[in-house]
Amino acid sequence: MSKSLRFLLPLALFVALVALLFFGLGTDPRKVPSPLVGKPVPQFTLPTLQDPKRTVSDADLRGQVSLVNVWFSTCVSCRAEHRQLMAIAKESGVQIVGLNWKDDKPDALQMLRQFGNPYHVVAFDEDGRVGIDWGVYGAPETFVIDRKGTIRYKQIGPIDQAVWQETLRPIVDQLKAES
Amino acid sequence: MRLKMLPAAFLAGALALPLAAGTAQAFTLEEFTFDDPAKQAEFRGLIDELRCLVCQNESLSASQAELAQDLRREVYEMMRAGKSKAEVVDFLVARYGDFVLYSPPIRPSTYVLWFGPLALGLLGAVVVLRTIRAKGKGQDADLTEAERKRLAGLLNQGGEPSRRPQGDRS
Amino acid sequence: MIPEIGHFALILALALALVQAIFPLAGSFTGSRAWMGMARPLAWGQFTFTLLALAALGQAFLTDDFSVAYVAHNSNSLLPDMYKVSAVWGAHEGSLLLWATLLAAWGAAVATFSRALPLAVIARVISVQGMVSIGFLLFMLLTSNPFDRIFPMPPEGRDLNPLLQDFGLAIHPPMLYMGYVGFSVAFAFAIAALIGGRLDAAWARWSRPWTTVAWIFLTIGIALGSWWAYYELGWGGWWFWDPVENASLMPWLVGTALIHSLAVTEKRGAFKSWTVLLAISAFSLSLLGTFLVRSGVLTSVHAFATDPTRGTFILIFLCVVIGGSLVLYAWRAPSVSTGGGFTLVSRESFLLANNLLLTLFAALVLFGTLAPLIYEAMAWGKISVGFPWFNMMFLAVMPFLALFMGIGHLARWKQDEPGRLARQLWIAFALSVAVTALAFLPGISAGHATVPLGIGLAAWLTFSHLTGLYERLRHKRGLRGALADLTGNSRSYYGMLLAHLGVAVLIVGITMVSHFGVEKDVRMSPGASQEVAGYRFQFEGAQAVNGPNYRAHRGRFLVFEGDRQIAVLEPEKRAYLTGGMPMTEAAILPGLTRDLYVSLGEAVDQQGDWALRLYYKPYVRWIWLGAIFMGLGGLLALSDRRYRTAKQRVQAGDTIGAAGTARI
What we know:
The complex is a heterotrimer of chains A (179), B (170) and C (664). Chain A is of the alpha/beta class and 179 residues long.
């Protein structure tokens, strides 16, 4: 390497480092993307929250576009996004299936009574096994499922107005347009 | 070859966790026992090398998060059922991605991570050797023929040598 | 009122820093002695005001002034006074103030202890330090003011994180910062030398003592952190390759390379541009560490603040300081003349090889730490890089490092004969091979190949250095001659010896505790016993106790070696009154060749059964003992007489010859 070029190398490496760190400032290192995106929903059968004799399974997620929302009653962010979920249920034609994750049944029912029920049906995952199959590591998380029952997107963290309008709604609309 | 260095067990994750009320849960590993000590060691080794997704800087063996306890139980039951280490790892990676492993798998996208250091080391060695070769020619060979003659002449005369570096004592 | 004074003091300090950054430097170009002469008083002034600000913050803590937001978030009236003081630097804003104060302190120290230096050099060095101070003071005043008030004033503070309520962790940040900030002096000297266009042995001689002091602090600071993690976190671990730990290791590695490189530049005038680059890099890595901890770019249990806007500010600051210095380097360094030549087998060669190994390892640590981010940026997927990878890198680099260390100290400068070295070292080598072979015995190595490797390397370092010592003392007259050597002008040699032996001690500690440590997870009832590595632990149950700001359960263990009771261990599980997760306080029986360690997990039922962990940790103290040896070695080298007679030397002229009487 020519002499003066050699002395520019540290600067060049530094510039690359800064670019990387600048990129890093815009990301959240805690978010773990899901390897299930693009794959069919995991098979499961769970009792519903309201009526233990009824069941909910992966078959219920085929035939229309759905959102699967993972929540539990003592989760602060879940409570925060609840209103947005109610709005989504009312305005768009999307079916929201709840996955009540490792919760206390009375507490969960109480929350729905208190804040309203945006869910078409709620699956009660008491021990969290189904959650593990879905790669859930915290709540709230929301999965967008297409008509064929393939997971197309995972939202980590609560859904607010901005997230719905800018991120999820376009995806839902596009999936609805698919045959 | 594996140096056991257990990460810290402490802070709660960023996403909301249930505030564990009341019931004392055993968040140590004494409930996950195998009769075969080799199997026990294998279990322990495996959970040491899996990352907790909640307290992301702790291993599955050290973390106090509830999800960690659930995953430890999954791993334990799978191993009890006779699944191999590779099968357990595949199970978790299928659900949580490569992030759950402390050691990224060796595949084309991670070649740079596993083989890059070797390449860098070799490059460094080459650089060192070339630098030393270049230095070996040094400045002492920089005297021209005429200067050498003059130096010899001065020394023979026993004249005062000009101040010279004395750096050679070891 | 006092917080306002503190705030105002910071503003004044910033004003002084601005003047300090501009005038002395400008004066060094125009030749204005008046302007250059301003450097020292400005440095002292800046130190006075930052210290005032720090004192004001300390006062706010000690008087429980919860109207100050920072105090309200990090203190509590029940907090013991000692921890109120350490809470000053327990979180983001306060730790920045500590950084700024120590930076100003080093500047004042340079201003005070550098009478022998030419005025132009001092002016430039202090100006550069002023520039760095501007960055920190501005950062504080604009984004992270420790004196911000909170309204309405809360009746009680949120309390200091219980993890930080500990002596070890109280002094760990100041030690570490003294190291990070100390490298700013070497940095400033390097920049001053680049600006002046004069990179010679004199510059190296001036920088060396300052750099060594900074390095000693950093060594001790890192060792303190490791020791603290070991006894406080309850898991017996001492190094986790956590991003922030790596952020402290990288400047240390480059700093170690730097002090050795400075030796060569001082002695032989060689490696000049490389040494300058190392000086820039060491401090740059310190600043990078500051960025990583506070920007939220990487997850870490240590992270102070995860605020991208603050991160942006620091990143811009990094661009200015590091980018600026590297531009200066690219511009000025090529015109620096190369120094003395040397051959393949010479002390320079071995020092260069190890310099590169240290730098390589630092680069690898940086790479591993940033790899998840790189992968995310390139959309190659989300991976994580943890201890298996880092340990592998360590094991790849360490043997070469130790090998060259063993030879380098004996090699002659400029040119040596392989035959001569071989003659001197073959006994040490043979002994090391013998020790390694012995360690391969199944009873000793327990099937791990890295045990003989570690033992062998430590043996090589020890034997080769003892050989060097023998060679040296052989030429002195008897014991008296040997002692005279020690107290005479060879302290730097003995410093080197001690520091290098410290490395051997460190290697032994790491090897032994990693492979022969035993850990038992058990559930015990009161009265039950467990056996670990030949020691018997008898559990006597746990009782509820109260502390100044916590409630705890304290377990009681009787420890037996054979039939003899050797200790009573009382680990605790604490719940702090201000909430948060419960904390374990492990009970440790320390020893030179082993630690016994007990940590409480959870109470399992109402009958007093507890889930807990018992550990046997052989030679774990050798890890920190090695670090202490290294620090002491540095201290010994510093006390070498030639630093005390520097004044006469400078007056004799700035040539390489003036440095020639040094023996190392």
